[in-house]
Amino acid sequence: MTRQCWDPERYARNARFVSDLGMPVVELLVPQPGERILDLGCGDGALTQKLVDMGCVVVGVDGSADQVAAARALGLDARVMDGERLTFDGAGFDAVFSNAALHWMKRADDVIGGVWRALRPGGRFVAECGGHGCVATIVAALDRALARHGIDPRTVNPWYFPTVEDYARRLRERGFVVRSIALIPRPTPLPGDVVGWLDTFAESFTSALEPADRPAFLEEVKEMLWPDLCDADGRWTADYVRLRFAADKPV
Question: Cα 184 from chain centroid?
Fold first, then answer.
């Protein structure tokens, strides 16, 4: 069985850019003091804390108990919860906010339904996640490397990178009014080499291998990616594409 683990220390070391680059979606949210906000996929609480600092009353949820523990250590109201099975029916949140989490939730209609039930009439759903074409170069290399090992990559890929048309349709079918939605190419410099990124985010792929084979596999993928994602000075950049949207639940 494939799995993705979230070690808060490893995440902070290799992926702090995820929350650091999340402020544009916070700005799209336009949080107001006193608003009740659900942070869907709060991780270790870095952006949740920013919303609290702005005067909002925030509940964070995440599927990782370790990340929730890290968020709670900041004094945040964080809870372990599956984003595809939200249990806030009638909670009356003013907004649901999500950064870099929805692409881990393949049952998008269940997520959207849970968000709808959590919001008050007139509430808003503002999010950014991986969009169509996100890390396509990395995914292609992982796929090729797994195929060499006799593994079907389709069985281990954990990501759902939707198009604008796909996600907008799902939102509208549930009843949301889509205020804005766009794909945003965002090549993202990595804090180290790509192996740190793979170790942090691609565990679902590597877990299909025997533990002893994983380090060599990561080096194999790194060699594939070197010509496209590493510059002459040895700096790595991931080929991110983000889907950013704002949608409203009618009054």
Answer: 15
Task: List the CATH number of the domain containing 237.
Answer: 3.40.50.150
Q: Domain tally for the chain?
A: 1
Beta bridge partners, 193, equal none
Q: Specify whether the CB–CB gap between 238 and 135 falls below 8 A.
A: yes
Q: Is residue 222 part of a domain?
A: yes
Q: Which two tokens stand for residue 97?
A: 């906010």
Q: Is residue 89 part of a domain?
A: yes
Q: Are 116 and 175 in contact (CB under 8 A)?
A: yes
Q: What's the pLDDT tens digit per position in 181-235?
A: 999 999 999 988 999 999 889 999 999 899 999 999 999 999 999 999 999 999 9
Integer CA distances (angstroms), 156 to 4, 10, 109, in order: 10, 21, 21
